[in-house]
Design brief:
mainly beta; globular; 0% helix; seven-stranded mixed β-sheet; single chain
């Protein structure tokens, strides 16, 4: 069955870095644009980045632009999120998802398969 499993979340100090991974199984990610989202305590889910199916284009929310980098390794069926200069506002549960319909600017895009999330705490 289709599954996305995020990993790499941790507790870090402000200014620190982390790399999140999203390993897919049950399908081939090379057929999909892939995305990362996050949900902070008491807030709604926020889209933060998308990478096209072949990795040729990337998109970022203003809140993470210049600090986060999305990448993918289709041979490993895995998507990554490299996070630098982490701030307390980055504290959230981070999810990856497949993109069903992509629109830029992002609002209006649709996502279908989601992972369970990995926790990032910056303090």
């Amino acid at each position: 069955h289709v599954q996305l499993v995020e990993s790499g979340g941790d507790s870090v100090q402000p200014g620190g870095s982390l790399r999140l991974s999203c390993a897919a199984s049950g399908f081939i990610i090379s057929s999909f644009h892939m995305s990362w989202h996050r949900q902070a305590p008491g807030k709604g889910k926020e889209w933060i980045s998308t990478i096209t199916y072949d990795g040729s284009k990337t998109y970022y929310a203003d809140s993470v632009k210049g600090r986060f980098t999305i990448s993918r390794d289709n041979a490993k069926n895995t998507v990554y999120l490299h996070m630098n200069s982490l701030q307390s506002d980055d504290t959230a549960l981070y999810y990856c998802a497949t993109v069903r319909i992509w629109r830029w600017p992002e609002p209006g895009s649709e996502y279908n398969y989601w992972g369970q999330g990995t926790q990032v705490t910056v303090s």
